[in-house]
Amino acid sequence: MDPAVALIRTTLNATALAAPGLAGRAAFELYRRPLRRGRVRTREREVHDRAVTRTLDHGGERVVVYRWGDGARPVLLMHGWQSRASRFADLVPRLRALGLTPVGYDAPGHGDSGGRTATVLDHRTIALRLQEEYGAFEAVVAHSLGVNAAFLALREGLRAERLVAVAGVAEVSYLPAAFCAMAGLNATVERELRRRVEGGAMFPGIADVTAHFDATRAPEQIAPPILVAHDEGDEVVPFAHAGLLRAAYRDRLELLVTRGLGHRRILVEPTVLDNVIGFLSADGTTGRSSSRNHNLDRTADAA
């Protein structure tokens, strides 16, 4: 275990015995902040360095925006927690080959952007800001927590012809438990953390946080056809989240099930990317054939 995570676990679990509220407040502060920033990986460097970069101001914080192309036919890339835009490097050349312009960003507290905290509201606001510049997007491609943010943005004004959701979070009520499990925090700390997250400390003015931010809420408000790709053995976001999305969006959602790729390799697996490109380049009949599941097994060569 990461020494920093081990120290957090020991300290907060011990504090919770005598002062559960204090432990809950400390856990809440950690919950809001990525424990580490994703770095550009070697395999991503060439594509990352080819991007046209600029910054925008987001609540006083500098957010780095990346563009590959001239801006025509834009595709928005939304990364996940402790991640960054360069994680889409394997997809970018494929999108360019279709004549599309990938546009990504590092959320506050992530990658090369400033700040220390980020929520799905930050992702939503940045996405809408980029829409003001580029117009409606031909597609949104999102990973992990970025999926949840993409559904929120689409309900609140983002326009896109298609949505690709890779290893996505469907229900935000899962996140405090996942955080506590990752850090080894006990039930008392989790209860106090959940009370703050769901009680308005994180999203003031939103009465029912879990319902408001769930990707399955108000499916009739989501217009584009959807491709969901999720690995059965995802160790970060359980495969059950794909089932929740499927139940909500039914025939408008095409499900690609993988095995042996986990939460991160699914974003670089060539056959998954082939399916994404096929979905994005198909004609308007995709939604009528989306009741089929597609299965991709990479167990034999899993890392």
Write the layout of secondary structure elements.
Elements: H1 3-18, H2 20-31, H3 45-50, E1 52-58, E2 61-67, E3 74-78, H4 92-97, E4 101-105, H5 120-134, E5 137-143, H6 145-155, E6 160-166, H7 174-183, H8 187-198, H9 209-213, E7 226-231, H10 240-249, E8 253-259, H11 270-281, E9 293-297
Parallel strand pairs: 3-4, 3-5, 5-6, 6-7, 7-8, 8-9
Antiparallel strand pairs: 1-2, 2-4
Task: Label this structure with key terms.
11 helices, nine-stranded mixed beta sheet, disordered C terminus, alpha/beta, 303 residues, 38% helix, Rossmann fold
What strand order characterises the main sheet? 1-2-4-3-5-6-7-8-9
Q: State the helix count.
A: 11
Helix/strand/pairing category:
alpha/beta
CATH topology of the domain at 57-171 and 214-301: Rossmann fold
> What is the succession of H and E elements?
HHHEEEHEHEHEHHHEHEHE
Q: Give me the CATH architecture of the domain at 57-171 and 214-301, please.
A: 3-Layer(aba) Sandwich
Uncertain segments of ≥5 residues (pLDDT<50)? 285-292, 299-303
Give the N-terminus to C-terminus distance in angstroms. 19 Å
Shape: globular
Tell me the Rg in angstroms.
19 Å
Name of the top-level CATH class of the domain at 57-171 and 214-301: Alpha Beta
DSSP E strands, number? 9
Rounded average pLDDT: 91
Amount of helix: 25-40%
Description:
The protein has 303 residues and is of the alpha/beta class. It has a domain at 57-171 and 214-301: Alpha/Beta hydrolase fold, catalytic domain (Rossmann fold, 3-Layer(aba) Sandwich). Helices cover 38% and strands 18% of the residues. It has 11 helices and 9 strands. The chain has a 9-stranded mixed β-sheet, sandwiched between helices. Strand 3 (74-78), helix 4 and strand 4 form a beta-alpha-beta unit. Helix 5 crosses helix 6. The longest helix has 16 residues, at 3-18. The chain is globular and about 60 Å long. The two termini are 19 Å apart. The model is unreliable at 285-292 and 299-303 (pLDDT under 50).
